[in-house]
């Protein structure tokens, strides 16, 4: 039996576990074969259903507008997932808000919220890739201003059924009806943060959750961002329970550390080469480098269940976060391996972390 009992994070909210995917279409480094976009999406649906059945709390899908990713429309895919699942929360990871219309984003996720009976969330971000700017007719020079203005509007839309609004980069709204209204009284909105203090402070000032991406290296390097976020929320007089932190990372779990390293290395190296600048640098990660990157004091969550437990608990000491989300399916990783990692996260990691956090609270 899985333990679905939740424990409280440092600010009194429940500690949650989740997985997310960006739906990359990298070729399997062993076979050289790539999945079609249709097959990749079927696997994402299967992973979401498995995560729901296993008792995980959150499932997220990302947004990219290029041929080497399968997912361009998170709310459409999440709507399909809503029909195949029962309880898991459904979020974007992330919505590239600068090149989207906030009204359409809100309407789409409000519809998802109705379909899922109150399970929808939005993680809004500026985006690590910029292909959506020319695609949707936006100027890259307006990168920061677009996100700021549209984030303000998105939050207003959640508060009012009718809205009058004026901005610089989007047309004005005059007593406009915003429909449908979501199932939840207030649909959760987070801001996705990479490494900039200004983004963390913005999330705090606005009173929304912060989803902090820590994809590798020493987690302590990111502690100042969580501090900046919480300080900004406190200064803006938002309740501590409203200042939620999610940590997101890459990772993989196998029964032993040796198996996890051996299984994940080819796919992680492939992903870094294709999508994280390796091709531009003309270099691939060696296995020795990878083993160092996945060491016990790093954020890269690769190892046995016990090692992952230790990493999450160590990060909780640093951040006091409320949610942990990990991406398993990168670089052409076969679905069977992803499914095994999901099962281990649910059965061997999640209950132990919750038990240990519960002891501290007791």
What is the compact description of this entry?
With 362 residues, the chain is an alpha/beta fold. Helix content is 44%, strand content 16%.
Fold topology:
Layout (H helix, E strand, L loop, with lengths): L15 E6 L15 H18 L3 E4 L12 H11 L4 E4 L2 E2 L5 H14 L4 E6 L6 H4 L7 H17 L2 E4 L7 E5 L11 E5 L3 H10 L2 E5 L9 H13 L9 E9 L3 H19 L2 H4 L5 H7 L7 E3 L1 H15 L3 E5 L7 H27 L1
Parallel strand pairs: 1-2, 1-12, 2-3, 3-5, 4-5, 5-8, 8-9, 9-10, 10-11, 10-12
Antiparallel strand pairs: 6-7
Helix pairs in contact: 1-2, 1-12, 2-3, 3-5, 6-7, 11-12
How would you portray this structure in words?
The protein has 362 residues and is α/β, with parallel strands linked by helices. The chain has one domain: Luciferase-like domain (TIM Barrel). Helix content is 44%, strand content 16%. The strands form 2 sheets. Strands 1-2-3-5-8-9-10-12 form an 8-stranded parallel β-barrel, surrounded by 8 helices. It has a two-stranded antiparallel sheet with strand order 6-7. Helix 3 links the parallel strand 4 and strand 5. The protein starts with 15 loop residues before the first strand and ends with a helix. The model has no long low-confidence stretch (mean pLDDT 95).
């Amino acid at each position: 039996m899985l333990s679905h009992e939740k424990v409280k994070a440092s600010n009194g909210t429940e500690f949650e576990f989740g997985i997310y995917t960006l739906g990359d279409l990298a070729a399997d480094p062993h076979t050289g074969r790539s999945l079609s976009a249709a097959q990749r999406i079927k696997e994402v649906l299967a992973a979401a259903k498995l995560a729901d059945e296993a008792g995980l709390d959150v499932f997220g899908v990302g947004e990219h507008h290029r041929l080497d990713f399968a997912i361009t429309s998170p709310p459409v895919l999440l709507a399909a997932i809503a029909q195949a699942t029962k309880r898991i929360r459904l979020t974007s990871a992330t919505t590239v808000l600068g090149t989207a219309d906030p009204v359409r984003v809100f309407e789409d996720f409000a519809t998802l919220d109705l379909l899922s009976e109150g399970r929808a969330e939005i993680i809004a971000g500026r985006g690590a890739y910029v292909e959506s700017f020319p695609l949707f007719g936006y100027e890259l020079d307006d990168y920061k201003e677009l996100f700021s203005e549209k984030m303000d509007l998105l939050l207003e839309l959640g508060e009012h059924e009718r809205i009058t609004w004026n901005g610089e980069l989007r047309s004005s709204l005059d007593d406009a009806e915003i429909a449908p209204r979501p199932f939840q009284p207030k649909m959760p909105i987070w801001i996705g943060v990479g490494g900039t203090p200004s983004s963390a402070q913005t999330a705090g000032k606005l009173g929304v959750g912060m989803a902090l991406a820590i994809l590798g290296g020493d987690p302590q390097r990111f502690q100042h961002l969580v501090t900046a976020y919480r300080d900004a929320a406190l200064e803006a007089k938002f309740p501590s329970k409203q200042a939620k932190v999610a940590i997101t990372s890459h990772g993989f779990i196998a029964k032993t550390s040796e198996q996890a390293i051996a299984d994940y290395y080819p796919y992680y190296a492939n992903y870094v080469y294709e999508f994280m600048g390796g091709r531009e640098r003309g270099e691939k990660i060696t296995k020795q480098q990878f083993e160092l990157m996945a060491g016990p004091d790093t954020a890269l969550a690769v190892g046995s269940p016990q090692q992952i437990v230790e990493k999450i608990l160590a990060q909780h000491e640093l951040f006091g976060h409320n949610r942990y989300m990990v991406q398993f399916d990168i670089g052409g990783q076969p679905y069977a391996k992803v499914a095994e990692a999901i099962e281990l996260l649910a059965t061997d990691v999640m209950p132990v972390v919750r038990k240990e956090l519960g002891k501290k609270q007791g």
